[in-house]
């Protein structure tokens, strides 16, 4: 009988602010960071579960402290029993009667639980010898709904609704898996669009994105309208009418400003406007979405939990759902969010980039295609070409598509040398 014998944490920070990679209207100098957790067991196979929370520098130590607060829940547990009941483990962690006060279900404690849950899924997939997307896609509809806490969701999505959605997708799973393995999953790139890049670098990176096979790019906006108009004109001139260009304001605006600014940018045929305002303000998103239609409103990377996603969907406040692998409480909560999106018929275009987010989130999108929504219509995974070299199983993006990972696990394991070199002193 094997047990979890250690929960190790690492405060890992990359000095990305030196090159302005990742710069936007609200985050001008991010140092891409990971509050990293390793679950070690005494099993003979020596396999470990790895997970992390993505942060952008200062405060990564606070996030690491939150991870350590979970040690008592996880160390000493029987490995097989734990991995057989990840729905139960999720409920135990999220509903801890004292830790819950620090949220509930939002912020650093919730994200720490997400990293631990994702590390458990990484371990489970490694032990099964399959990539996470394939493990999830092999579960029965009943096994999938057992992973989800439907508390606070049932006015929009019940267990029975979720079962019906999953059952209706079941007959096509094998065909879609074959298609995914042959063709990959569509990607878009944010690499050209960081706000700190000058016009020449923007133009050069737009050209490179098209040469690499991308048909969809994204530009950061929201600091200065004249600059945004000039940068969008440069991008549109290079891309021509057929490449999609989305814009991302990273929460910069109030409602009236969001509407005015988005309408000004709409002349460049924008694919969506992302994070126009506070991620907590459901009514503001609904007002903006109504006023700027038909430009779709996208959000999700800072949405704290499934309950806020539910309200955004109910209110019409978002029409592109951008879930994030490390913002909410891990794989389980993201499955609930995928099911909510499917119920409302809204495409999921995951947030990625940062450090390791592409590696992690591709599994959720691919599972969604095979076993939940069954669709690629209007769906793309964000791609940014930074820091993949630190991962044992980095993403493989070719011709503008994510190739389905074949290696066992959740894609979340960093090389020990990278962990050591970038551990914050
Ligand atoms: Mg964004």
From TrEMBL:
Keywords assigned by UniProt, alphabetized: Lyase, Magnesium, Metal-binding
The protein's name in its UniProt record: L-fuconate dehydratase
EC number(s) from the headed UniProt entry: 4.2.1.68
Keyword Magnesium part of the UniProt annotation: yes
GO molecular function: L-fuconate dehydratase activity; magnesium ion binding
Annotated Mandelate racemase/muconate lactonizing enzyme C-terminal domain residues: 199-295
SMART domains the UniProt entry points to: MR_MLE
UniProt feature coiled coil, ranges: none
Catalysed conversion reaction: L-fuconate = 2-dehydro-3-deoxy-L-fuconate + H2O
Top-rank taxon: Bacteria
InterPro entries: Enolase-like_C_sf (IPR036849), Enolase-like_N (IPR029017), Enolase_C-like (IPR029065), L-fuconate_dehydratase (IPR034610), Mandel_Rmase/mucon_lact_enz_CS (IPR018110), Mandelate_racemase_C (IPR013342), Mandelate_racemase_N_dom (IPR013341), RHMD-like (IPR046945)
SUPFAM superfamilies: Enolase C-terminal domain-like (SSF51604), Enolase N-terminal domain-like (SSF54826)
PROSITE patterns: MR_MLE_2
GO annotation (BP), single: carbohydrate catabolic process
Cofactor list: Mg(2+)
Record carries keyword Chaperone: no
């Amino acid at each position: 009988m094997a047990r979890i014998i250690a929960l190790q944490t690492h405060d890992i920070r990359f000095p990305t602010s030196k090159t302005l990679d990742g710069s936007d209207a609200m985050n001008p100098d991010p140092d891409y960071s990971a509050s990293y957790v390793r679950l070690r067991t005494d099993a003979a196979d020596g396999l470990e579960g790895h997970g992390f929370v993505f942060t952008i520098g200062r405060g990564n130590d606070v996030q690491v402290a939150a991870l350590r607060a979970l040690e008592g829940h996880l160390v000493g547990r029987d490995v097989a029993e734990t991995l057989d009941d990840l729905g139960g483990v999720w409920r135990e962690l999220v509903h801890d009667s004292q830790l819950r006060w620090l949220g509930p279900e939002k912020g650093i404690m919730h994200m720490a639980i997400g990293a631990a849950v994702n590390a458990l899924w990484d371990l489970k997939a490694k032990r099964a010898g399959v990539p996470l997307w394939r493990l999830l896609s092999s579960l029965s509809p009943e096994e999938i709904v057992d992973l989800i806490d439907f508390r606070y969701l049932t006015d929009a999505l019940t267990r029975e609704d979720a079962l019906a959605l999953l059952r209706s997708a079941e007959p096509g799973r094998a065909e879609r898996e074959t298609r995914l393995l042959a063709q990959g999953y569509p990607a878009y790139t944010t690499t050209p669009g960081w706000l700190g890049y000058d016009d020449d670098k923007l133009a050069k990176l737009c050209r490179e994105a098209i040469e690499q096979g991308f048909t969809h790019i994204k530009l950061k906006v929201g600091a200065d309208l004249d600059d945004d108009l000039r940068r969008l004109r440069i991008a549109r001139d290079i891309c021509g009418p057929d490449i999609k260009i989305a814009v991302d304001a990273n929460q910069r605006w109030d409602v009236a400003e969001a509407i005015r600014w988005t309408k000004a940018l709409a002349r460049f045929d924008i694919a969506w406007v992302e994070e126009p305002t506070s991620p907590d303000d459901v009514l503001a998103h609904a007002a903006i979405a109504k006023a700027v239609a038909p430009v779709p409103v996208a959000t999700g990377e800072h949405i704290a939990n499934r309950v806020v996603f539910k309200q955004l969907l109910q209110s019409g406040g978002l029409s592109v759902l951008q879930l994030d692998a490390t913002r909410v409480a891990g794989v389980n909560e993201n499955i609930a969010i995928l099911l909510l999106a499917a119920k409302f018929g809204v495409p999921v275009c995951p947030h990625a980039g940062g450090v390791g987010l592409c590696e992690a989130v591709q599994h959720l999108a691919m599972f969604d295609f095979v076993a939940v929504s069954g669709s690629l219509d209007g769906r793309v995974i964000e791609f940014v070409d930074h820091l993949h070299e630190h991962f044992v199983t980095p993403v493989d993006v070719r011709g503008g598509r994510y190739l389905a990972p074949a290696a066992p696990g959740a894609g979340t394991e960093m090389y020990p040398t990278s962990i050591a070199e970038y551990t914050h002193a």
